């Protein structure tokens, strides 16, 4: 490796909005993040699923009328 061209890879603390602190190594240093694995809905299981079946049925009803008119 060439010398003096690589960024410094040091210990860093990332603090989430929920208060969770993640200690790791990074080139950017310590930082504040908006969301982490402790508060993200996908990882916590609190994700709300959208009922697309109702939307599809509304779409089919709406355009079935137009297909009959044509």
Mean pLDDT: 83
Structure annotation, total helices: 2
CATH architecture: Irregular
Anisotropy-based shape: elongated
Please outline the major beta sheet: 3 strands, mixed
> What's the β-strand tally?
3
What fraction strand? 15-25%
Strand line-up in the sheet with most strands: 2-1-3
Distance between the termini: 70 Å
Low-confidence stretches: none
Order of helices and strands: EEEHH
CATH fold node name: Rhinovirus 14, subunit 4
Structural class: alpha+beta
Helix content: 25-40%
Give a description of the structure:
With 70 residues, the chain is an alpha+beta fold. The chain has one domain: Rhinovirus 14, subunit 4 (Irregular), CATH 4.10.80.400. 31% of the residues lie in helices and 23% in strands. The protein contains two helices and three strands; from the N terminus they run βββαα. Strands 2-1-3 form a three-stranded mixed sheet, with no helix packed on it. The mean pLDDT is 83.
